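Annex B. Sample input.
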Amino acid sequence: MKTLTVALAVALLVSSLRAQLLPVDDAWVNRTLQSMTLDEKIGQLFVPAHTDIQKTEGWIRSYGIGGLWFARTEAKKIAAELNRLQEASKYPLLVTVDFEKGAGTYIDGATDLPINMALGASRDPKLVASAARLTAREARAIGVHLNYAPVLDVNNNADNPVINTRSFGEDPRLVAALGVAAVKGYQESGLLATGKHFPGHGNTATDTHAKLGVVTSSPKEFESMELYPYKEVLKKGMPSSIMSAHLWIQAVDADTLPATLSTNAMTKLLRDRLKFDGLVFTDAMAMGGITTRYPFDVATVKAIQAGCDIILFPGNLEKGIQAIRRAVSNGQITEKRIDESVRRILKAKTRVGIHKQKFVDVERISVLVGTEENYREAKRIAAQCVTLAKNDGKIIPLNPAQKVLVLTMSNKEGNSMMSRGLVTFPDEVKKLSGNVTELRLSDSLRSDEVAGGPQAA
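Annex B, continued. Sample output.
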């Protein structure tokens, strides 16, 4: 505890509001890499989900994990836990999150922001950059270093069950422009950004959390649609990292193979052709897009062989680490290949300065996260996103004397990936009129509920 107290005192001199990413500290990277054992290097390749502090501390002691991800929690609680976990770790932990719509996505008391489709409706890169900067400030204040955002997938398939509103839109040029703005907003405010899900998760009707998706676009269509935002963002924004997709991209691979495990996708396309030398994360390896087709240990080795650096959400951490160790010992993967990934991981850690200061000041969180100023900024951003699709019947503005039916179409309410309060519009309409009926349409709706719709109107 004495060491932690002293380090926190030093943190007051090293502001937690670091304005931008730092230059890579090559000297520290080289020195650290040379000092690591093979087992320590292998541990750096894994980023599991933190749900229980004793369990995560055990992973740190036993395997020396490279980082972690966390979900729904409270700001001061998670910041204190992250300080404790950083204290337990020999090497600084890279803390990662999915703050696609602000830190409020997963942090109680933090600021919620509009989802990407709403930001896309604004068609305003400056607004997107403002949202990203706000997210970055709150994320860094609680000890987060890397965000799995922005989503760079084009929403070009209306039946897509998992991307849809998480995309900026159906126009690849708009997605690219707003993606560049988001990356710059995050990274200019000190938060590492991740473009996902490479090489494009829009044109599929499959939820890859359940099974392997397929993108059947022709090579020409793939280049002009799915790949376009990635090409532009890598050229103009350069995110620190990319996340793979558990999709078979037929324009890339002739045989059935998830992009995550594809050398054609992750090395020949991303590394060689697009010249990306940052971090490459797999999407969660516990997802059905992988587990329904491959044993976890086999998939883990294939992902590293394909060109991925970090195994996200390993289904079985011990089994994954053992699989990489065996692959090195039997020559499937060289230690030089492991070193390439670990070097990228260490470089990323120096860009957020955690090789010098890995703790945050928990007591300052209340003046940095979920503040009135941040709320006003979020409200300004949200107001600019509101889009009136049409008003042929002159329904807007609402007449309080008339009956109003609010028809909501959503399958995502309550989904932890999309956080709380996804569907708030009906409640807001009720504030304007006392004669409002709400009907929500979703795949889970019963036939009698659907039949009741016309009567509700």
